[in-house]
Amino acid sequence: MENKTKSKNKNLHDANRAKQDEFYTQLTDIEKELQYYTSQFENKIVYCNCDDPYESNFFKYFAMRFNFLGLKKLIATCYIGSPISNKELVLFDNETAENKTTKVPHKIIINEFTDENKDGAEDLQDIVLSLAKNKNNTLTRLNGDGDFRSAECIDFLREADIVVTNPPFSLFREYVAQLLEYDKKFIIIGNKNALTYKEIFSLIKNNQTWVGYTSMSTDLLFDIPDYYKEELIENKKEGSGYKIIDGKLKARASAIWFTNLEHSKRNEELILWKEYNEKDFPKYDNYDAIEVSKTIEIPKDYDGVMGVPISFMDKYNPNQFELLGKLPESNINPAPILNGKTLYQRILIRRRV
Q: DSSP secondary structure string, 158-210?
């Protein structure tokens, strides 16, 4: 019975993770983050490798700003296709009506953006017209299934300079490992808890990746398939599991931006004002470190090891603080205990002096 229960729980967990892989990023959230990197896109090949060209707001963002950003090329590919119906972008497909579906994996390659309809604006209609004229932009089916790990997609990855997308949360470790294997710059979305993954935390500690510009406390809302909307309404509370924006349901997720491109916030110094005292900053029962429950209260005059909440990573400046580790990390390094009470995960830091 116990094994059956574990198996059932695992199946449910895997199913929930798979649903979160179908979260589609809003254009407004993309615009808010990417505005801080615009100069770094000039003459670069951008690859969105988890992005159905019919649906992806990442593709829309870069296509409509192709000239503004000075892109060299834009490539977008996806796994199988989005279950969301977007009739506006079905115009891209010049195949027969029966094939006008996003269930087929496509690749779209944009080499130039011109005002095809001569209306003075640069929008998706210009891309549609350029594709119809078989000009220097193409939309074709992929040979394989579009998985980012496929040989076909890896070839595109090799060609790219910067990868920007919302990858599958369930494959985040593997996805980031691939980006680093091919030495790529990236701006991607991941679950906030990924900060505590052994592999991801190690990258942050070694200055190979960091949190994006958007505050970790910012609500990221996502479009989702209709079947999942019904499930959220039935099982989650409005405001916590989802929100209704202009009459449309948007899923909430504990998500943040990760990048290895520089942005100005990364070098901002956190103003420290509070002075250390034993009452406000007690030591853990099982570690030689003090508890700092709020990032804004990090003492300005303490030179030892401090435990801070995960939200500290939003303010982490590698020139001001040293990352030492995280608790818990393994059976050897269990969770911190304070006055007999086990605390939630903490990041261990020390001020650079």
A: HH-SEEEE---GGGHHHHHHHHHHTT-EEEEEEEGGGGGSHHHHHHHHTTS-E
Predicted model pTM: 0.88
Its CATH architecture, for the domain 16-262, is 3-Layer(aba) Sandwich (3.40)
Q: How far apart are CA 156 and CA 227, in angstroms?
A: 32
Q: Which residues are CB-contacts of 339 (< 8 A; sequence separation ≥ 6)?
A: 282, 285
Nearest-angstrom CA–CA distance, 305 and 323 = 10
Distance CA 8, CA 15 (A): 11
Please tell me the distance from the alpha carbon of residue 110 to that of residue 136, in angstroms, as a whole number: 7
Q: How far apart are CA 214 and CA 265, in angstroms?
A: 9
Q: How far apart are CA 332 and CA 345, in angstroms?
A: 15
Q: Of the candidates 287, 210, 217, 317, which has an alpha carbon nearest to the alpha carbon of residue 298?
A: 317
- Ordered by start, the domain boundaries in the chain are 16-262, 268-351
Q: What is the number of H-type helices and E-type strands within the chain? A: 9, 18
Name, of 121-125, 134-138, 247-251, the range with top average pLDDT.
Answer: 247-251
- Reported as a single tens digit per residue, the pLDDT across 141-182 is 888 889 999 999 999 999 999 999 999 999 999 999 999 999
What's the pLDDT at 281? 98
Report the pLDDT averaged over residues 312-325: 96
Helix (H), strand (E) at residue 126:
helix 124-132
Give CA–CA dist 220/315, Å, rounded.
Answer: 19
With CA atoms as reference, report the closest residue to 200 among 262, 267, 258, 263.
Answer: 258
